Amino acid sequence: MHTVLQTQEQADEQAQDTRPLTGNEAIARGAWEAGVRVAAAYPGTPSTEILESLARYPVEHLYAEWSTNEKVALDVAIGASFAGSRALASMKHVGLNVAADAFMSQAYIGVNGGLVLAVCDDPGLHSSQNEQDTRIYGQFATVLVLEPSDAQEALDLTRLAFDLSEQFDTMVIVRGTTRLSHTRSRVTVGERTEHLSRGFVENPAKNVMIPAHARPRHFVVLDREARLKQYLETAPINRWETGGTSFGVVTAGTCYPYVREVLPNASVLKLGASWPLPEGLLRRYCESVDRVFVVEELEPVIEKELRALGIKAEGKEFFPRTGEFSPEIVRAGFEKAGAIEPRAGRVSWAPEPLARPPVLCAGCPHTSSFMAVRASGARVAGDIGCYTLACLDPLRGIDTMVSMGSSIGNAIGMAMAGDTKPVMATIGDSTFLHGGIPALIDAVYNQANITVLLLDNGITAMTGGQDHPGTGKTLRGKEAPRSIMKRWCAPSE
Amino acid sequence: MSGPNPSNCSAGGVQLLPVAAAAKAREPINVLIVGVGGQGVIMVSKALASLAQSKGFEVKQSEVHGMAKRGGTVFSHVRFGPQVWSPTIPKGEADILVALEWAEGLRWLPFLKPDSGIFICDTKRIVPPFACLDRHPGALLRYSRETPAEVKAHVVEGYAIDATRIAEELGNVRAANVVLIGALSMSLDFSAEDWEQALSEFVPKKTIAVNLEAFRLGRRWVERARTAPPDAQPAETPAPAYRPYKVRLEITPEWCKSCDICVKLCPERCLRLNAERTVELTDAAKCTGCRLCEWLCPDFAIRVHLDAAEAPGVVAAAEGIRP
With A446 labelled, which of A51, A263, A385, B132 sits at a CA distance of 20 to 30 A? Predict the structure, then answer.
């Protein structure tokens, strides 16, 4: 046990307003402090609590909504930015695929009110269908990507993101991961700074992306990238922490604490922004050490950039490109690279673990639905939600699942291709409103011989029970016009 | 923190008294709390994190949810000390493992420090429906089979507590996690008063009294286990998988709407709809108590009770254990 005496520093800290916050709560707090006036999201693990937290701040401060999908959420935020207000959209990594059309165009337009996109990746697929790396979207669209490594940075960098957004006329991504989103630690909070609306600025050459306008904007985007790189050369969010010279580590985000856990005294370049990357700083840092390791979860984004600069960086050779990192994985990488002495294994007894797959909740009505589906002998295209669990025993009800709203389009294709079985699609209420409606219209339009089962349990259940247009309640619990499922499915005239 | 030393609990001041092996002064204390969705894992970790933070420690508490609600594994890492880097506890580095369910406790054992880790586990078992598929009379139940005695032989210090039964006897089965908090408190250097204050903030107002009682019973349980000479130690519940029991189905006919789900999905085919189209058990000897019907009934019309059997061996077949 430790003897803990309070230091002066700790006493000072306690005089400030500190509280335990998760990464998601801290992102929400940072946005609120930055004076955000409009926030929108579609729920998705691990990002859901960002909007839930924002909705707990006073209604006079900001408007917050559950949108029908991520593209709508981003469009709402872009609209608010056009109108001159600070705005935030949040989503999980795959949600950005849905919003990508708006996202890529917005990169050319830039902002009026500061615009921040909080995207939470899910390395290790705790609750997702893939583990794509959002930093590549930043590179793709040429926008700034900030990467907090803990809840305090989640607050600070989100707050900063709004300022940088307006300073550089760019949307800014705050990229989190499941580990950031769902780790609670002490955060020193500040006060809200109001940013009154700047008002709409009429400028079609910037705001209307026809080819004639977009062509010159592409040059503006490239110039913006150069200015961002210049800023990042000396920005305090990139920290050069000195240590030994035999090797150094370039890292960012939630990998940083793992590196520090394993190498408390090593030389580390801790990047607060993982895109774009400042060439001068990277070169100077890499020259200060004999070997350079890059520790980054998922794709070798930083490593490739270093290699493009002609720097012999080592990374994915030792640290995996899949899954979530841990102190063990980071230690094993450095041991394999010969950077640290292998430590004697600390092996505890490991009895064979019991398989405990998730199942539908007791009393869930989907159980009855999938009993009927199974009995029908149909080929079944499934969709995203708790009911995807019907692919497992004991329900064994669905054959495919691709992405939000895919079931109906997939079913159309299977039927048109002549599957020998009758073809069925199963889709939940929230997923139907999110991405199923255009496909249902397509099915009717093209006279597809399919049966669509709309499994309406009246809530977005998978992410913990959020409201949607079919529940008749908004994010803040206000009564709202209810989207009636039956009406969507009424026969056309 | 290493070995337990209840006499070292401080009296509620900010300064904490050191216990043995304080050499690793700058290292954080790692407590891993695990269980099944809905058991209250997050509440236990929040109470601990809040208490540690109020004592001036840096605290990181990391959890994973998403699938948690659906009967899956839930775990929460709590690390506190003068400085904490990684939000997750490295394998083999947990000082204490608190498990709210027996098989979950076993799953996370590799995270415990081999030379000093403390294992605190409820002997309650929540058998997942999947452990029961493809069974036949006499087949082995796919559930962890290690006994508390085996586990205790492999850890430096272990407590297998029937916390759920203790909580049931108090009249609130949901207080089982607080019984375990009581047990945990005996291995950490925070005072009982501080714990009780932290708990009062985290449990529903109406249940403060019963939870504080549960906390005290948990402490007393560990105290007795430590002080009593080995042969007089309180009898510990054997691994439930080995304990013979009788299955009793409690059916509420008014709630059954004849949907047939339980009948179709029962792995032993021992349920049917009777003349009134209400579910009933056809062959009590075949029922293994797997709970699949209870789990999947949309109307909560079936509850499965596993009552202790009078004579071991008699119901061993129903339990699925070969002698």
Answer: A385
